[in-house]
Amino acid sequence: MQKRADIQSLRALAILAVLMGHAHFARGGYVGVDVFFVLSGYLITGLILIEVESTAKFRPFAFYARRLKRLLPALVVVLFSTWAFASVIVVQNQPSDAQAGELASFWVSNFYFFARAINYFAAKSSSNLFLQTWSLGVEEQFYIIWPFLILLFYGHFRRQRNERQLTYALIMVAIVSMALNLYLVRVNPKADFYLMPGRAWEFAIGALVFLGRRNGRFRRSHFTLYGYSLILISTFVFPTDLAYPGFWALVPCVGAALVLADESCPRFLLVRPLQFTGDISYSLYLWHWPLLLVGIWAFGHSILVRLALVALSVGLAAITYFAVEDPIRRLNVTSYRVFVPSLGIVVFGFLMLNNWYWNAEAMLRDRVHDEIFEAEHFDTAPFWKLGCDTEFNSAKIRACVVGHGKRTIGLVGDSVSALWFPTLREIYPNSRLVVLNKSGCPASTINYFSKEIKAPYTVCKKWRRRAISYLAKLDPSILFMGSGRYPAYHFSDARWIKGTRETLKRLAPHIKHIVLMNPVPVLPFNAGHCLWMRADRPKWLPRRKCTYHLPSKDHMFAVLKQAARTYPNVFVANFDNIVCANHICRAKVKGKIAYQDNEHLTASFTKSLAPQMTVTLKALFKSRRVALKW
Q1: How many CA atoms lie within 13 A of 27 on its CB side?
Q2: Which one, out of 25, 403, 434, 520, has a CA that is 20 to 30 A from the CA of 38?
Q3: How many CB atoms are located within 10 Å of the residue 185 CB?
Q4: Of residues 550 and 238, which shows the higher confidence score?
Q5: Averaged pLDDT of the chain
């Protein structure tokens, strides 16, 4: 198929959208991948039909050999280069990076990211170096199935070609796949995002545009500007918490279809920078993600750093295109001479990356890394091992009851507040401690949109209602209530105050004393990751500090005081000064790792805070002239 300026410009727009999204210059840059899928459907369908109609046969080995020549060389260069670089300077995620790289060499890494439930929209410095290869997996799986579907629907095997039949069949594929997409985006968004069945409708749209264009149905169309507008709007307007792909993916896909359908070619598409970007789009897609990930990890997140990394990505992509990708693609060799070395290269790459995995596993078993790993995964409140924090989709109440005594102490809230359990156990050793915990569920009566399921988290509402009823009947002497910081839940001050008052309204008449705990300070970095960086960072890179200076005023504390001011039996406690001494939060305090991540405290650290927390609570109750036995 002859190179076309409109197709190259569309490739350029797609990769620029992805690049801006990953460099944090556009929120909806992920739509660029959808544009690539529509393009693939258009081009591959065209290549198959043109070959069948000109030669009366389809040669699958020649088809796949062309795909290998086009895609494998640049992928191998980037996989090996990333492995060589990351094995020297990035230690923390090497095992998972190596596993993803192994599967990327066979174009099946999308199954790995689906199985590991990697959130593409939350991708950051702790993400996988080969996350970008998920879409290559989807495309390769499409290449395996699509030619035979096209030939079957076209009637090639029966030697009775029928283009109308092919058109109707493609429409049915699009409808069925879109229905699956709309279903999965609600019940299993990771499967919808990473796996090919829920994406097949995008390829089908491209195929339908090819059929319509060659039959002259778009001769007088001037759709390019409309198509570009739809893609640009979705790139800059779509948020990262959108239920995607879902129905919204139609916007960039229709935009791509309009550009492909337009038989006119506006002059602005012919500008050399746009055509050049389209030429290097595949290599740029491969290079940009590991460079941004490692570069931001090493040098920070400033605009200048990100622009420099984008420029470096373009430079390496250009070198890869002119030195590797384009020359190999032009080689005139038999299919056999493509398959044999390709298989050898893929197997060799898999073995090298597998060796990297085992070396990384061994390297992470030393004392420093073991300590960090233990803190991240096991230094948590023991009641979680008892199944008190129910599964994500369950609204059941499972109260953890620890200890025996006449006095009952209650603790209710999400996973952040629940980590005060070891502290309260130390402060009240002779009391019965009852914990009601649900991860992701603030104690305040507020419903919110979950990024995990891309839908309102109604389970939380049911669980909270049951927890409040349980606590009202339990009638504890003191109830400790809290949650994470509400910006993480995307609430306004007014919503948080209203929701907190709603919970207090139902609990305050039944419980003598309620301690409303100010949320734990949130670090702007992951504590474990930062400590890992300090342990493994090469000496020639800038040294990173695992500390954070708290602002002079705590806005959240003021909001909670306002919410509780009409309830005389509610005490608002601020433990920031004991978590972060002298207003400085540290990843490690007096030999103990303080945070599991950026918000959840470790159990050993909170336990060590018991004496200071006792002093704070005594002062708080004394300020209201409330005498309690400790």
Answers
A1: 9
A2: 25
A3: 24
A4: 238
A5: 85
Omega of the bond leading into 245 within 30 degrees of 0 (cis): yes
pLDDT in tens, 267-302: 777 788 999 999 999 999 999 999 998 888 778 788
- Whole-angstrom distance, CA of residue 232 vs CA of residue 244: 17
Q: Which residue's structure tokens are 């927890």?
A: 467
Q: Is 82 helix (H, G, I), strand (E, B) or coil?
A: helix
C-alpha to C-alpha distance for 410 and 434, rounded to whole angstroms: 5
Inter-helix orientation angle 250-261/31-55, to 10°: 40
Structure tokens at 523: 């670090």
- List the structure tokens of 146: 């699509």
Residue with tokens 């009240």, as numbered in its chain: 428
- Neighbouring residues of 597: CB distance < 8 A, sequence distance ≥ 6: 376, 526, 527, 528
DSSP helix/strand/coil, 202: helix
Calculate the alpha carbon distances from 347 to 37, 84, 127, 338, 350 in Å: 27, 17, 25, 14, 5
Q: Which residues pair with 296 in a beta bridge?
A: none
Q: How far apart are CA 465 and CA 438, in angstroms?
A: 12
DSSP state of 491: -
Burial class (CB in 10 A: 0-12, 13-18, 19+), 24: middle
Q: Which two tokens stand for residue 599?
A: 């918000």
Among residues 418, 483, 476, 493, which one has the least CA distance to residue 444? 483
CA distance to 39, 78, 485, per residue, from 95 (Å): 34, 18, 32
Q: Which two tokens stand for residue 152?
A: 């079957």
d(CA 47, CA 41): 10
Residues with Cβ within 8 Å of residue 363, at least 6 apart in sequence: 91, 94, 369
Nearest alpha-carbon partner for 202 in 141, 145, 249: 249
Runs of H (alpha helix) within 451-600: 458-474, 493-507, 527-536, 555-564, 576-579
Once rounded to an integer, what is the mean pLDDT over residues 141-167?
Answer: 86
Written as six digits, the tokens of 338 are 């493509």
Count of C-beta atoms within a 10 Å radius of residue 235: 27
